[in-house]
Design goal:
0% of the residues lie in helices and 57% in strands. By secondary structure, it is mostly beta strands. It has a four-stranded antiparallel beta sheet with strand order 2-3-4-5, with no helix packed on it. Strands 1-6 form a two-stranded antiparallel ribbon. A hairpin with a 3-residue loop joins strand 3 (28-35) and strand 4 (39-43). The chain is elongated and about 50 Å long.
Length: 72
């Protein structure tokens, strides 16, 4: 049976990438300063302060008419 499914994938950041976060407590413009296995360091373009956080950003996609739940 086909369903409409929202898909979340961890986003693959690149060092030096300029990003804008919306709708969270970290909202605003940032530059990707470093990427770890489980963390990302973002730099404020104004204060130049850096903050390391557990990876939290996801790319969202809407898929129409797909199998759900998927079979492994």
């Amino acid at each position: 049976m086909a369903h409409d499914v929202t898909v979340f994938r961890p986003y693959s950041f690149q060092i030096g990438q300029k990003i804008r976060l919306e709708g969270s407590r970290r909202k605003g413009d940032w530059e990707v300063a470093a990427i770890g296995e489980h963390t990302i360091t973002l730099r404020c373009p104004i204060s130049k302060k850096e903050f390391e956080w557990t990876k939290f950003c996801y790319l969202v996609d809407e898929e129409k008419g797909v199998e759900w739940p998927q079979k492994s």
